[in-house]
Every structure is written in structure tokens, then in C-alpha cells.
Amino acid sequence: MVLDLDACINSLFQRQLLAESVIREICEKTKELLMSESNVVHIKAPVTVVGDIHGQFYDLLEIFKIGGYCPDTNYLFLGDYVDRGLYSVETMSILTCLKLRYPERVQLVRGNHESRAVTQTYGFYTECMKKYGSAQVWHYFTDLFDYLTLSVVIDNMIFCVHGGLSPSIHTIDQIKVMDRFREIPHEGPMADLVWSDPDPGREEFAVSPRGAGYTFGSLVVEKFLHENGMDHILRAHQLCMEGFQVLFDDQLSTVWSAPNYCYRCGNLASILEVGVEGERHFNVFEAAPENERPLAAESQRSVFSNGAPTGLYNNGTGTNAVGNGNGNNSNGGTGFLNSPGIDSAQDTIHYFL
Ligand SMILES: [Mn+2]
């Protein structure tokens, strides 16, 4: 079988799922490609940077409408492609195809949700079971996650990562020698890169309320930028009601690309266009109108409700920070919207403890 990536990309744009065997082949090829990428990929502007998408496939299509299609626009995606939204499979499928088709023009950084453990709790596993009737597709994609790079540097000036900094990483060279080809560990530098958050009220590192990674303050940012000769940190990972947030005297930006997060937070989203002179422009947008129609349809099917074949999403352990137990849709029939975890827009990892 000859893999026709353009045909795959076209059918995904038509909202059609790829066959399981095609996903397997695409993931195998993409792993080979990613294997040769550094933990720190150096790229050049212009590039359009995208934050968390979380399975909001219709909003991703909107991003291409606003930001331009591949390969006319270079894209850097900062992770958290899956979980929460209704279309993690479609989102991951199209991003993987685009990476494989245009490897130099599309960069995919790993987020804390690109993980076997997290996707079993926040929806991707259940969605794969529901759409393909087995866990194979989930296995193909989560195996691929282990190969995603951890960071990108734009024009030797902007350090890009999903979460943030780590008390055990002082130089970018230290990231380059890490062994990233593994599940995201519970702690240590690799966990910190995908889990940490800035805290404008602090100067140093502190314990994170998420239960993984750290919060880091102004002095940490200043020191990291100075020691590495960079002038900006660009990251995602945190919901911003205005779609983006700039902190620490313009030394750090958060870009958030899931509008009306979980189809109910009412927030704006943005993509960040980095120009050839290093200029940064946030392009702010609202939720795509298409979200209304499919969401109504999905509600009838109750995608992530009690009928899901795994029970993993609604595991009702009681200690689970995102679980309210048993998936009883007390509000009736809206499936994912009533699923646990949505009450808190900020993910935590307490279920590991
Ligand atoms: Mn995240």
C-alpha cells in the first residue's frame, strides 16, 4: 500500500476519520522522522505558534482559515492536542499527517496531555475506543507521543516549550542531552518542561498546585534568558480568558488556542505570529460556529457518558482530582460536557498520588 498523505489530509479536512491501518502506518513513519529530531529543535521565523487545542477540531480548522494552510504558513504547535474536547482523534490525525507531509514547516512539541496516563483520565482513550472499537489507535498515538520533541528555539531568541522551566535545567544544552523517548515521568526535568507555570507574584521556584512541575517567578525567567542568550519564553498550558497573556516585562508569553474551552468556558483564543524581525503579534479569535451543530449531534450520542466501553474516564476513585465518579450525567444527555474534570479548567496530576 502506498501512503497518500495528501488524500489523508483532504479526508480529514472533510471530517472523515482515517482507517486504523492508515493511522498505524502514519504513526510508524512519523516516529522514524521524529527520532532524528533534537530535544531542542531550532527553527526560523516567520512561524505561527499555536497553544493548547484539546481536541477542539473545528477550532483547529478555524486556525488554518485564520493563519493560513500548510505549507504556506509555518506552524509550531505547543502541545496538548488531545483530551477534553470531542475530536482528539481527528486533531491528532491531521497534525501527524501535516508533520509527516511538511516536516520542516510543522513542529509538534509535547504537552503534558501527550501521555498514556493523562489520556486515560481526560478523554482521548475513551474517544479512541468509541470511534474505533479498540484501543489500537490510542496505542499508535501514545507510542508516537514518546517521540515528540520537548522544545523549540526560534531564531536563537525565543525559547518555546509547553509548560515552563525546571529547577534542574539551567541551560538549553541540558535539555539536548535528556532521554526524551519515554512516557512523561511524574517528576524531574522532563515533567517540569510540560507541567510548570509562571507565577508573576513570585521570584523563584515554588511547589505547583497541579501536583507536577513547579511555578517559577521573575528572577528564574531573567536568569534563564540571560544564561542562554535568549530574550523571550513562549509557552501554552494555561487557559487565558483573552486568548493570551504576557508576563514579566514582556519576557514570557502564554498562547492559548482553544476558544470557549470545553465548549463552555467562554474564553477567547489566539495564535501568535512571529515575524522575521522577531516581532510578535497575537491573532485573537472566537469559537468556530461549527461547534454548535456537531456538539448537538454528539450530545445525542453521549460520547463520553456511562456507555463508554472502558470505564476509565469516569473511574470514580474518589481521590481522583478530575473524577466525580461513575459518570452519572445528572444534567442529562450532554455527554462530555458533564464529564468530570470540566469544573476545573486547570488540570492536575493528583490522581497519581
Ligand atoms: Mn497543558
Automatic annotation (TrEMBL):
**What SUPFAM superfamilies does the entry give?**
Metallo-dependent phosphatases
Gly residues compositional bias, start-end? 324-335
The portions of this protein that span the membrane are none
* Reactions it catalyzes: O-phospho-L-threonyl-[protein] + H2O = L-threonyl-[protein] + phosphate
This protein's UniProt keywords: Hydrolase, Manganese, Metal-binding
According to the entry, every stretch annotated as the Serine/threonine specific protein phosphatases domain falls at 109-114
Which molecular function GO terms apply here? Answer: metal ion binding; protein serine/threonine phosphatase activity
Which SMART domains does its entry note? Answer: PP2Ac
Q: Where is this region: Disordered?
A: 315-339
Question: Among its keywords, does the record have Hydrolase?
Answer: yes
Give the E.C. number(s). Answer: 3.1.3.16
InterPro entries per the UniProt record, alphabetical = Calcineurin-like_PHP, Metallo-depent_PP-like, PPA2-like, Ser/Thr-sp_prot-phosphatase
Its family remark reads: Belongs to the PPP phosphatase family.
What is the protein name stated in its UniProt record? Serine/threonine-protein phosphatase
